[in-house]
Amino acid sequence: MNSNLKVASMIKKSIQLLFKMVKVVCLLSLIGNGSVYANFPINVVRPYDIDMHWAPQPAGTWEYGVVGEFAGTVNAYNSDGKKTNVLQMWECNVDSLAMLRGFPSETDIGQTNALLAGATDNGVRGHVVPTGTLNVWDASLSIRYFFPANLSLGIYLPLYTMSLGDIKWNDLTRNVTDEDLLVKEILTDDFPKHVRELSETFGCKGKNTLDIGNSWKKTGLGDLTVLGVWSKNFPQVKPVLKNVRLTGRLGLTIPTGLKTDENLLFPIPYGNDGALGVVFGLNVELQWYNWIRGGVQADFWKVFGDTRDRRVKTDTSQTDLVLLGKIRTHKEWGFNRRYTLYLELGDFTRGYSVGFAYQYFNKGGDRLNLVSNTYSTLAAESATSLEEWKLHNIILDVSGSFGEKNTSGRTRFSFFYKHP
User: Fold this and answer.
1) Distance linking the first and last C-alpha atoms of the chain
2) CB neighbours of 314 closer than 8 A, spacing ≥ 6?
């Protein structure tokens, strides 16, 4: 009996010791209309979002976090900023005749292109309109430790589940001329079937088969982020301004996420597509009175270049969604920057607040360099998906806490809505 009591006492003390070190953080996100922008990543929560970094904690504190995020519907925005179906974010339709250009004449694709040489593009001939439904769910686990000198180190690991379904191809080709009928027979009557057969003939048989007719669903890890943060409060003895907080961060993204599956329609990488990256940023936050604070945050990240097989354009007239050529390519990723303005109202002593934020994101253009001289780097770099793009976000955040401030086991929760 005494032995059992001693064991129970030891377990109790161990649990108490653990909670003395732990701050638990829970954060849930609801995106009413999730959005996909040209050239991934998707508009999802990142470890360096303002919502993921709260007040500095005493040295020796452990902070655990759980983030859940889902989108009710997922839309895309094209280069003109107009909302569209996710499969039309680069172009409104696929040009199947242009898809055949740029290949050597002795290849099956080149011979098919020669066979259809008389079937000129009249604006609808060979054009196919794609539609599909994209579903996105993601979660992130994090652990963060606070050191002396206002330093902390965090590790963030996301998990994604995405699926593409309800895939349809609407052929715009008319049934008027012999050329129309020939294009329908060879290409557009069963577009997914013809794409699969043509792609099988490119390179090693069976390794380049492009499947654009079947739905897909993938679950996997995203890129691991290790992030160091310095954050310090500078209390102010003034009637209105009460505190100034300065924060700087520097981190590394490690390519643990799923890479692009080049043989699927609209493949999405769960991270930087196998490339290493560096993130850094800073923010200045001011607190007025005891119930209002706001600030500005700047984040930057650079993804280093990598070389692997990618689907690329072989002719400048081709559309981006369906490409038959898969070629070894070196990719130089564009520089990314994001700026956030935020304002928060609430009882900060008790840990309750409502926040509003505006974010501006700019993704620099990417560059490609083909390893093979058979195909044109100029054509490959003409892809719309490589171009620079911009994004504007509006965020509403409602946060609360329970448990005494600066005590073991204090828990913070947050719900936020992001548009688009």
Assistant:
1) 62
2) 101, 102, 103, 323, 324, 325, 375, 376, 379, 380
CA distance 271 to 283: 24
Q: Say how many C-beta atoms besides its own lie within 10 A of residue 196's C-beta.
A: 17
Mean pLDDT of the chain: 85
Nearest Cα to Cα of residue 38 among 99, 101, 84, 104: 84
Amino acid occupying residue 407: T
What integer is the mean pLDDT of 25-46?
48
Partners of 49 in beta bridges: none
H helices of 61-159, where? Answer: 108-115
Residue 415 has phi, psi (to 5 degrees) of: -120, 130
Q: Is the pLDDT of residue 10 over 70?
A: no
Q: Three-state SS for 11?
A: helix
Q: E strands of 148-238, at which residues?
A: 151-171, 216-221, 224-235
DSSP state of 108: H
Q: Is 365 helix (H, G, I), strand (E, B) or coil?
A: coil
Is pLDDT at 34 greater than 60 in this prediction? Answer: no
Average pLDDT over residues 334-357: 90
pLDDT at 221: 93
Q: Which residues of 317-326 are buried (b: 16+ CB within 10 A; e: fewer)?
A: ebbbbbbbbb
382 Cα distance to chain centroid: 22
**Is the Cα dihedral 113, 114, 115, 120 positive or negative?**
positive
Phi and psi torsions of 398, nearest 5°: -120, 120
Cis-peptide, bond into residue 56, ω within 30° of zero:
no
3-state secondary structure of 207: coil
Length of the chain: 420
Instruction: Quote the tokens at residue 144.
Output: 């963060």
* Sign of torsion over alpha carbons 301, 305, 306, 312: positive
Nearest to 185 by CA among 196, 199, 171, 204: 171
